């Protein structure tokens, strides 16, 4: 279990395996067991986080949203241990779209979950005003009814939002003197309103609440003033083009600040905020998981196998074509720079070159001096590339031979082509698991109330041209049932802290109740420190496990290729199933070493990710302090270099593990020693191999991206009306993930 101290003399192989294999160790033992145990314990922690995510998370919060009362649309909720079923209510609707007319009112505009978006005859248009149909009004949930109406309207369910008609059955109006003042104001409007006011003066019945609801902000219900369009389960009001003009005319300039159509701008700004975008993007991942699996995983696997076939027969040709292309590109750039510098063009050949180039490339005389130095630089680079090519022809031949031998090994061991299915399945499981848990974690957190720091809202008011006040009172009154339920809890929000958080001394249900009825408060889910640490742990699990899968593949394939290489391709001296033999050795003896190497790379990747996060959070500071910006850039660059160096050492250490059966530390030491003593040869071989592998990865990723794009163009993913459950807000992240997954698979 030590790093290197557990190495021991290996027994001599028997005559049957007398090792044509003078370099391949047959008898092995378990290595780095402690690292394997740590990895197992770590995954036990991953499953604990999974349990937390499933217990506290709710993906519908990302897809359908959370309304102003803390209810998740499209889900079954609970309120004070009572069921609050909104399974069929998947659309977020602003009950008072006029509150969006305030530049700062979007966040505080009250929303509810609705089965559909009001349109057509459900809209209370100006021609219908005052409206008489219950379908033309939307109310807060009856459980959160305004004017202390809960329990006073018979036959209404707690989640009902269309009880405007039933308001007429209320027998006891509790507004007292305020009701008389309101009726007098309505009577002053004349017309149909005067008739209704006269009826209320003679009999102050529940119709008082119906009339009050005609004016947004006054009554327990709100007229559907505008047609709405459903977009990603949000009912966006369609404001008429002349809305601003009419409001300005009626208000006699009071709301002239709206003439620049700030409504649309503010709604668009809120919708396009980074947090809202990211929430929708994460929701798209769960909707587009089939695209990622088919385009990224399956497509990546198929294209990778095809690339292996290409290397088998065209590896040498591709290498020499790539070298020729690089040299010709350098020479072409050199000639172009000399033409721009004015040194080519007078001779016959030079004139032919100039004639072949576009006619608008001739620079001014001031620029020719600059181009002269550019041409000198390009000439030096071209000369060096050509010189290196000529000097390394022998080593390039070795590299080409290595590629060919690897291709021959694939031909001699055709089962190795199917080995990628094993890490492929692991990658599928890891990605699906990680995405699912991430979505649940992202939707978890504490329901937090945020209060408007500047005090009362300043939304558009009908009182500006009707003389009927619609300024909602921020003082919340409770019914006797609510008062008993809250056991005397004060409805005061208290002073918001520096972050704007309020209602901090309330339970979750109490916070939802009071904030939902407070016009200066809105609710959202906020991660607590426990969830932040859980996500960091979960993210590191992705990095570490991914590196373990990569190491597992590398050691297994290297072990199989080693059998082929040291047997000189003679199948008699090879195991019957070399891939299975290598797989057995990897699983039984070397998983601890793989976990060791994977941990080092994953830790560096985690540090790089944290540096990127810190970089984004300190952009303003860096803009003011160039030294801080320079230091951050240097640290990020150093970590990038360290990661690539460790990955390079890891890859060669895994090969030594597969060949020699050593522990990770000894294998890494042997690999570094071998690399140093053969640095030039290794550099050329790795450069050629890396170019081919990189071209293969890019080709596979690009093809997977095309496949994913083609799939997202289907109506199944871009038709919100026909397929609302699979509609993608934006296919960008799904396509990008498909390409990234294919790149990893390759």
Automatic annotation (TrEMBL):
It comes from the Eukaryota. It comes from Tetrabaena socialis. Pfam families: Choline_transpo. Its main location: membrane. It is a multi-pass membrane protein. Coiled coil: none annotated. The keyword Membrane applies. Choline transporter. GO terms for molecular function: transmembrane transporter activity. The chain crosses the membrane at residues 33-54, 289-310, 317-339, 371-393, 533-566, 586-607, 691-711, 726-745. This is Choline transporter-like protein. It is found in: Cell membrane; Membrane. Keywords: Glycoprotein, Membrane, Transmembrane, Transmembrane helix. GO terms for cellular component: plasma membrane. The keyword Ribosomal protein does not apply.
